[in-house]
């Protein structure tokens, strides 16, 4: 299912976002706290590149950061501008511009069949039920998945489910596709296939992954640590620094363990 915060259809709302805004996201001292816990702190950055990756250790704030991009999270300090509008104003419109794919397709897919799953986003954009179903079938055929249209989602493999979830957001033609560890539970061949599909897309991409090889060919890599931006730059440089840091921490762990 395409993430959708309210049932009202977007066609009824005047637009505040500019889908062509560049950068599409501007963070100005953005913070996110829950209770006394500071999940993200003092993030100042602009996102404009076609392919941006995000890395960091468990709990560093990657998922929280990307959830700010589609309104699943709201900053508790600082200013966030999305597609040219303050995030609070852009929030209800974001599902049109930002497709979000979760790690676990079972958290995303909710309709009985593949065709219904794909058609849902089109109905939310204002298309009629029959038109949505017919466009969904055509879209599946366009991506070589016509055989899946009538299948129950529960009977798909993990890789097929993930592909359906990606197609369910792509059918809405978002400007930005955010993928939060989409390949985490897939085998090597399916990972390569889905990665190729993702890289062939015209959409701007933000990808969160623990697998550093996923960022080959990316324009930029962000490294988060304890909710702060530790490094931001070319993927090769950021990956090398991150790996060096991980190795040095392992050394420290060994020294502690030997005490
Ligand atoms: N709803 C919440 N309430 C309180 N703390 C939260 C909440 N959501 C996340 N956190 C905390 O925020 C921090 C960052 O979590 P987040 O899921 O963004 O990290 P992550 O880098 O994506 O981690 P991982 O690599 O394990 O998926 C963690 O310490 C987490 O416990």
Summarize the structure in words.
This protein is of the alpha/beta class. The protein has a single domain, classed as 3-Layer(aba) Sandwich (Rossmann fold), CATH 3.40.50. Helix content is 35%, strand content 23%. It has helices spanning 62-69, 87-90, 94-97, 114-124, 129-142, 158-170, 188-199, 235-258; strands at residues 25-34, 37-47, 51-55, 77-82, 85-86, 98-101, 176-180, 204-208, 220-225, 228-233. The strands form 2 sheets. It has a 6-stranded mixed β-sheet, with helices on both faces. A 4-stranded antiparallel β-sheet has the order 2-1-4-5. β1 (25-34) and β2 (37-47) form a beta hairpin. α4 (114-124) packs parallel to α6. The chain starts with 24 loop residues before the first strand and ends with a helix. The relative contact order is 0.17. Residues 34, 37, 39, 56, 58-64 line the site of adenosine-5'-triphosphate.
Helix fraction bin: 25-40%
| Total DSSP E strands | 10
| CATH fold annotation | Rossmann fold
Element pattern in H and E? EEEHEEHHEHHHEHEEEH
What oligomerization state is this entry in?
single chain
Overall 3D form = globular
Please report the first level of CATH classification, the CATH class.
Alpha Beta
- The number of distinct structural domains comes to 1
Most strands sheet: 6 strands, mixed
Strand order in the sheet with the most strands? 6-7-8-3-9-10
Radius of gyration: 19 Å
Poorly predicted sequence stretches spanning 5 or more consecutive residues: none
CATH architecture: 3-Layer(aba) Sandwich
Query: How many helix segments?
Result: 8
Measure the end-to-end span: 51 Å
Q: CATH superfamily, please?
A: P-loop containing nucleotide triphosphate hydrolases
Q: How much of the polypeptide forms β-strand, as a percent range?
A: 15-25%
Give the names of the bound compounds.
adenosine-5'-triphosphate
Structural class: alpha/beta
Mean pLDDT: 88
GO molecular function: ATP binding; ATP hydrolysis activity; ATPase-coupled transmembrane transporter activity
Family: Belongs to the ABC transporter superfamily.
GO cellular component, one term: ATP-binding cassette (ABC) transporter complex
InterPro entries: AAA+_ATPase, ABC_transporter-like_ATP-bd, ABC_transporter-like_CS, ABC_transpr_CbiO/EcfA_su, ECF_ABC_transporter_ATP-bd, P-loop_NTPase
């Amino acid at each position: 299912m395409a993430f959708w915060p309210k049932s009202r259809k977007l066609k009824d709302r005047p637009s505040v976002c500019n889908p062509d805004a560049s950068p599409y996201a501007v963070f100005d001292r953005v913070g996110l706290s829950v209770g006394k816990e500071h999940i993200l702190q003092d993030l100042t950055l602009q996102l404009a590149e076609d392919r941006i990756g995000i890395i960091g250790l468990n709990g560093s704030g990657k998922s929280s950061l990307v959830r700010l991009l589609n309104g699943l999270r709201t900053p508790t300090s600082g200013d966030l501008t999305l597609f040219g509008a303050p995030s609070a104003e852009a929030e209800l419109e974001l599902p049109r511009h930002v497709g979000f794919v979760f790690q676990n397709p079972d958290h995303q897919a909710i309709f009985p069949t593949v065709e219904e799953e794909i058609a849902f986003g089109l109905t939310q954009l204002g298309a009629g039920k029959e038109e949505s179903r017919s466009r969904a079938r055509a879209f599946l055929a366009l991506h070589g998945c016509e055989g899946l249209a009538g299948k129950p989602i529960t009977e798909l493999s993990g890789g097929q489910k993930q592909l359906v979830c990606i197609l369910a957001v792509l059918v809405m033609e978002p400007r930005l596709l955010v993928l939060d560890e989409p390949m985490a539970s897939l085998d090597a061949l399916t990972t390569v296939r889905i990665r190729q599909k993702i890289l062939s897309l015209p959409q701007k991409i933000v990808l969160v992954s623990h697998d550093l090889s996923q960022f080959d060919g990316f324009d930029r890599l962000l490294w988060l640590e304890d909710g702060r931006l530790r490094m931001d730059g070319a993927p090769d440089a950021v990956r090398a620094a991150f790996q060096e840091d991980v190795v040095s921490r392992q050394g420290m762990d060994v020294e502690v363990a030997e005490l």
